[in-house]
Amino acid sequence: DFERAIAPMEQYASDIGLLYDQYPNHPHLLSESVYAQTAVLGLLNDAKSLSSTELEERVNKVVAAAEAAIQIAPNDREIIDAYSSAMYHGANAYMKSCRVFDALPLRKNAVSNARRALSLDPKNREYKDELAVTLTAAGDSLMNSVRIIEGIESYLEAIEIYEELLASDPENRYQQRQLLRTKIVLLV
Fold it and tell me: Which helix (H) or strand (E) element contains residue 4?
């Protein structure tokens, strides 16, 4: 029930913001201040169509929280993940509102930070999967903005990552579905 979840989620984001203001050096509160705003945006995006003003306000709030956190801890894996997630969900909100060109810079930032996270731990399967997910989403946005070659390149890189992940875990149904979905979209 998305509608009923909005008020408690907004209260949680507010509480995290107040705690972070009191303890700005607490590393978990820094990342959670980004995750909380991102969760509110994601929930609102799932629950309803946001007005143009509300969409802009919410995306700006998420991006500002992410930018502030990445400035404080640019090489912290949790912050990079929170930043990438904020960009991903901000872009999703723009895409739902048919603002494809507004989504593109956020998609680019999400991919860039997913790459950074993976470079900090190149063998981490979760980071590889996150990069593949962000590449697929970027491919979707690029194709919708008629940047076909770049979209195809993004999909192909995601496919390569999924195939690598499945080579060592062939029973992973989630990654099987993601690979199949990306291949189908690429064919269409």
Answer: helix 2-22
Alpha helices in 23-124 (DSSP H): 27-47, 52-72, 77-96, 100-120
DSSP symbols for 73-96: -TT-HHHHHHHHHHHHHHHHHHHH
C-alpha–C-alpha distance, residues 152 and 160, integer Å:
12
Residue 4: predicted pLDDT: 84
H or E segment and range at residue 14: helix 2-22
Closest C-alpha among 97, 5, 114 to residue 58: 97
If we measure between CA atoms, which residue out of 85, 119, 88, 130 comes closest to residue 105? 88
**pLDDT, tens digit (0-9, with 9 covering 90-100), for 88-116:** 999 999 999 899 999 999 999 999 999 99
pLDDT tens-digit series, residues 59-84 = 999 999 999 999 998 888 889 989 99
155 Cβ partners below 8 Å, 6+ apart?
135, 136, 139, 182, 185, 186
How far, in Å, CA of 19 to CA of 13, rounded?
10
The answer to whether 134 and 110 are in contact (CB under 8 A) is yes
Residue burial 106-139, b: 16+ Cβ < 10 Å; e: rest: bbbbbbebbbbbbeeeeeeeebbbbbbbbbbbbb
Torsion of CA 12, 68, 130, 141, to 10 degrees: 100
